[in-house]
Amino acid sequence: MIGIPLRFKTAVALVLLGLLTLLAGIGQKTFWAPAETVTATASAGEAAPLTVIDQKLRTLEGGTVTIKVKGEGSFLLAAGRPDDVDAWVGKTAHNTVTGLSDDKKTLQVKHTDGEASAPTPAGSDLWVSTENASGEMDYTWSAPADGDWSLLLAADGKKPAPSSVSMTFPNDTSMPWAVPLMVLGVLLILAGGALLVLKPKGGAPRDGGSSDNGSAGKASDKQGSLFARRARAKAAAKAGERSSSARLSVVVAATTAVVLAGGAAAAQASTSSAPASTSSESAAPTTSASAAPAASGTPVVLDAQFRRILEQVASATAAGDAAKDAKKLAARVAGTELEVRTQNYKIRSRVASYDARMPVRSTKLLTTVVTDKREWPRSVMAVTQGEGNVVPQLLTVVQNSPRENYKLVGTSPLQPGTTFPAIVRGGTESLAAGDKSGLLYSGQEALAGLADRLTKSNSTFKSKLVEGESSPYIADTLSYQADIVKDGVDGKFAFTHKVVPESTVVFRTEDGGALVLGRLTFNFDGTPKAEGDKLSIGNDAAVLAGGKETTTGMVLKFAESVAVYVPPAASKDPMKLVAATRGLVGASFK
User: Residue 390, SS3?
Assistant: First the structure.
C-alpha cells in the first residue's frame, strides 16, 4: 500500500496554517478592530453655576474632540485662554472636568466651593468665541489659535450650569500584529504551494563493478546488483524528499522568525507611543483654579476678538455722539475719553458751532498694538481711519479687570506727516511707566518732558523732544499761551501741563524703543491785575463756568491725549511727538 508522501502532508499543513494566519491578520483590521472613537460621560455631581472643561482634555487622546451638552433652558459655552477662564471664574463655586477614568468611560469632575453666583459670562471680551444653545448642544472642540484653550459652561451665572456633559475622543485603533500576521500568512501559503511543485533531488549511485568467476557467478552477481541498485535508488529518493522538506522548513522557520520579530518590535513601538495613563492619580489634568498661567508672549486678544471689541466701542461712541448723550457711552467708554465727550456734548447742546469730537471708526483698521502682559489692567491700541477722519487716530482701549469689558479711554489724531513706529503685531512687551530698560527715557520721563516742553518755550527738552514741520501741536500750544499773555492786558495768566500718572501706557517697538501714551492735564489760570478788572472767557467755557465774565479770576481745564516715541538707549535721535489732541473738560470762576 502506497502512503501519502511527507512532502504533500507538509505542503497542506503550511497552506492551512497560512490561511488561518492571514485570516487572523485581516480580522484585526476588520471585524476585530476596536471602535474609532470612545465616549466618556460626566457623572452627576454637586450643582454649581459654572462648569470648566480643562484645556488638557482637548489633546488628551489626540485628534478632534466632540462634546455633547444637555441642560434645562438656555446656556452658553465659551472658549478662552485657561488663565482668562480661571480669572473670570474667580471665587465662584464651580465644577471642573479634569480628565478620564482608566476605562475611558467616565469624565472625572472636581467640585470647588465658593460664591453661589456670578455675572452672566455672555458678552465678555475674554472669550474668543461663544456658542449659545437651548436644551442641547453639539460642539466640536478645535483650537482657534496656537496655545491652550479651556471651555466654560454656564446658564446665567445664577442657575446651575448644565451637568450632563459627554465627550467623544479618538480611540487608539492601531493593531500592531495585523500586518505581520497577514505577511506571515501569505508566506506560509506560498511555501506550501512551492513544496507541492518542488521535485526532490538525488538518485541511485552507480554500481562499482563485480568479479568475473564464471557465467553462473556473473549472472548471480548481475541479479543481485540490480536489486541492490533499486533499493539504493528508492532510499535515495526518500532521502532527497526529506532533504527538500527540511530545506524548505528551515526557510519558512527563518522567515517566520523575522516576521515575528518585526511584529514584536511594532507592538513595542505602539505601546511606547500610546498615551500615558489617564488615571486620576497619574495623568489627571489640574483643576481650573490651579491651572498654570498662559505662556509669556501670548497676546491678550486675538485679531478677531480685537475687531469685535473695536466694533462695539465704535458703535457705542457713535450712538453717544449722535444723541449727545453720555449715558450711551458708559458700556464702552471711560476715563479721559468719557470725560471729554461728556463735556463736549454739554457744550454742543448750547453752542452749535462748537466742534464735535473726532468720530471713532472701526471700518478701516490700519494696525493694532496688543500687549502680551496678561495681568490686569490690560491695554491695547488701534490705529484707524474711517469716513470723517482726516488723519488716522490712535485709540487706547483698557480692560481693568477680568469681568469688565474693554473701554475706550483715549483718542488722539496722528500728527500730520508723522510715521507710526513699527510694533510687533502678534503681541508686544508692555512696560511699567517707570521702566527705562533699553530706552533713552522711561514712559514717565517722556511724558514729563513733553509737559515741560508744552509749558516753557525755553524748556530743556526743546532739542530732546521734537515734532515734524507739518505737526505743529507743540508750536501752536506755545503760541496760544503767548498770545493770551500778550492780549490779556487786564489779567495775569499761568499755564501748566501735568502728567496724570495712572494713564501712562508703554509699548515696546520693533527697534527696541517704545511708544508712550498718556494724558496731560492742561490748566489755564487767570487772575485780574487790579480790582474791578474783568476777564472774559469764550462761549464754550461759559457753558461749563455758568457765565462769560469774572472779576475774581477763572480756571480752564483741558485734557490732552498724547503719544510720544522714545528711541532705544543707544540712539542719538530725539524723542518725537506722534499724536496729540486736547478737549475742554472744565471751566470755573474763583
Answer: coil
Query: In the chain, what is the greatest distance between 2 CA atoms, to the nearest angstrom?
Result: 178
d(CA 508, CA 561): 19
Asked whether residue 114 carries a pLDDT value surpassing 80, the answer given is yes
Other beta carbons within 10 Å of 105: 11
Give dist(CA 156, CA 318) in Å, integer: 29
Q: 0.85 exceeded by the pTM?
A: no
Give the pLDDT confidence of 308-364 residue by residue, as tens digits: 999 999 999 999 999 999 999 999 999 999 999 999 999 999 999 999 999 999 889
The SS3 call for residue 116 is: coil
* Mean pLDDT score of the chain: 83
Distance from C-alpha of 475 to C-alpha of 469, rounded to nearest angstrom = 10
H or E element, residue 73 = strand 65-80
In the predicted model, what is the mean pLDDT of residues 521-526?
97
Q: 288 with 150: CB under 8 angstroms?
A: yes
Burial 455-473 (b: 16+ CB within 10 A, else e): beeebebeebbbbeeebeb
Cell representation of residue 153:
459652561
Contact 40, 167 (CB under 8 A): yes
Contact between residue 316 and residue 308 where contact means Cβ atoms under 8 Å apart: no
Q: Judge contact between 133 and 69, C-beta under 8 A.
A: yes
Candidate from 133-137, 173-177, 349-353 with smallest mean pLDDT:
173-177
What are the residue boundaries of the structural domains of the chain, listed by start?
Answer: 6-31+175-206+215-273, 37-170, 303-589
Give one word for 546, left, alpha or beta, with left for phi > 0 and alpha for psi -120 to 50: left
Measured CA to CA, the distance from residue 582 to residue 11 in angstroms comes to 100
User: Which long-range contacts (C-beta less than 8 Å, at least 24 apart) are formed by 469-477?
Assistant: 469/417, 470/415, 470/416, 470/417, 471/415, 471/416, 471/417, 471/418, 471/577, 473/415, 473/577, 473/580, 474/577
Residues paired with 505 in a beta bridge? 517
CA dist 453 and 475 (Å) reads 10
* Cα first-last separation, the chain: 139
Run of H or E including 42: strand 37-42
Please report, as a single letter, which amino acid is at residue 108. Q
Q: Quickly tell me which residue has 498661567 as its cell.
A: 293
Please, are residues 580 and 562 in contact by the beta-carbon 8 Å criterion? Answer: yes
Cell of 126: 475674554
Burial bucket for residue 205 (CB in 10 Å: 0-12, 13-18, 19+): exposed
- Is cis: bond before 299, omega within 30 of 0? no
Q: Residue 549: in which H helix or E strand, if any?
A: strand 549-550
All cell numbers assigned to 151:
471651555
b (16+ CB within 10 A) / e for 62-93 = eeebebebebeeebbbbbbbbbbbbbbbeebb
